[in-house]
Design a protein that fits this description.
This protein is an alpha/beta fold. The protein folds into two domains: 195 residues, 2-enoyl-CoA Hydratase, Chain A, domain 1; 48 residues, Lyase 2-enoyl-coa Hydratase, Chain  A, domain 2 (Orthogonal Bundle), CATH 1.10.12.10. The chain contains eleven helices and ten strands. A six-stranded mixed sheet has the order 1-2-3-5-7-10, with helices on both faces. Strand 1 and strand 2 form a beta hairpin. Helix 3 packs parallel to helix 4 and helix 9 runs antiparallel to helix 10. The structure holds acetoacetyl-coenzyme A. Acetoacetyl-coenzyme A binds next to helix 2, strand 6 and helix 4. Acetoacetyl-coenzyme A (CAA) binds next to helix 2, strand 6 and helix 4.
């Protein structure tokens, strides 16, 4: 069987590419297993400091694979068949190192949810985002109703989930769904550039900041402030804190060790 998820490294950036063009990168059980395994492997690899998750120029991913779901009947059967599959989106949201989604073309259903499970999104001008599950008789099941609502607010999230309305790349930028919109020729190189920029920072500080920002999506302000304060204090146990502050006064570039 052909490989549908490609894995490579570029210096300290790990790159995972979904390559299933015949189905617009529909996220089958196998594709999601492979994506999660590859990103999880990079998360544990000390030589990798940031990751890029990409699809193709035509489709980041057109959703979970409808073929995997069409003959499931009954909630208990759906739970048995899909719970493990859907847990892959959760697993990506729990990675310690930053993941940049490089999105072009369709980011629909589980594809939109996959992009939102990443930490940042670099989008091509041709990309659009939507949760069209209602059009096939279901609803989002991999985090869309929760993640999209936290980003765009109740009114628009309702409209997208209840009608299948898609956002253009420009709308997604204006609403804070994506970090930047660039021409299709450069969306992948821009995503890699952003990943390299992050990978050049002290890794423990990057991971602590990522965890703290993510915590904000899931906690009250007072809990979040406590979490941030504790994370901030813990960084004073690192060599990179000593090095960063010393280098500042010596007016030189710091040399990070990740310790
Ligand atoms: N699952 C399986 N196959 C898919 C797919 C999906 N999500 N999306 C597209 N494909 C397949 C099509 O069946 C088609 O295959 P064949 O050539 O063998 O017929 C191929 O990809 C190309 O698709 P189209 O011919 O439909 O291409 P198009 O340009 O006319 O339309 C599209 C593109 C608008 C994205 C359309 O394919 C579409 O609507 N796809 C489904 C989108 C969707 O409903 N996504 C949500 C899935 S459910 C989900 O994700 C649940 C969840 O929350 C986890």
């Amino acid at each position: 069987m052909a490989q549908e998820v490609l894995v490579e490294t570029d210096g300290s950036v790990g790159i995972v590419t979904i390559d299933r063009p015949q189905a617009l990168n529909a996220l089958s059980l196998r594709v999601m297993e492979d994506v999660t395994a590859a990103l999880g492997g990079f998360d544990l690899n000390p030589a990798i400091h940031a990751m890029v998750l990409a699809g193709s120029p035509r489709a980041f991913a057109a959703g979970a694979d409808i073929a995997d779901m069409k003959s499931i009947s009954g909630a208990p059967a759906a739970d048995k068949a899909l719970a493990h599959h859907l847990s892959h989106w959760d697993a990506i949201g729990l990675l310690k190192k930053p993941v940049i989604a490089a999105v072009s073309g369709f980011a629909l259903g589980g594809g939109c949810e996959l992009a939102m499970a990443c930490d940042m999104i670099v989008a091509s001008e041709t990309s659009f985002f939507g949760q069209p599950e209602v059009l096939i008789g279901v609803m989002a099941g991999a985090g869309g109703t929760q993640r999209l609502t936290k980003i765009v607010g109740k009114a628009l999230s309702m409209e997208m989930h209840l009608t299948g309305r898609r956002l253009t790349a420009r709308e997604a930028l204006a609403l804070g769904v994506v970090n930047r919109v660039v021409p299709i020729e450069s969306y992948l190189s821009e995503a890699k550039k952003l990943a390299h920029q992050i990978a050049a920072q002290p890794p423990l500080a990057v991971q602590a900041a990522k965890a703290s920002v993510r915590h904000a999506l899931d906690s009250s302000l007072s809990e979040g402030l406590l979490f941030e304060r504790q994370s901030f204090f813990r960084l004073f146990d690192t060599q990179d804190q000593k090095e960063g502050m010393k280098a500042f006064f010596e007016k030189r570039k710091p040399i990070w060790t990740g310790q």
